[in-house]
Amino acid sequence: MFNPEIESKLMKVTAFIRKTAKKNDLETKAIIYFRLRDGKKDIKAASELSISPNHWSPEKQGYKDRGTDIYK
Asked: pTM of the predicted model, to two decimals?
C-alpha cells in the first residue's frame, strides 16, 4: 500500500575499474566493479565483465565514445 508520509530513498549504483594502462596498450584488461549504496549500506562487487582501461570512461561508467576522423 502506498503511504505518502514514508520518504522514498533510492539506491545508487556506480561502475568503476581499478586498473590503468598505457595509451596504446589494448591487451591489458580490467575487471568492472559495481558499487551499490543504500543509506548506510555500501557494497562493492566484482563482475564477470572486463574491458581495456583505454576504452573505459569514468564519467559515463562504460565504454568511451569512439569517433572516426576523416581527413581530406
From this structure: 0.72
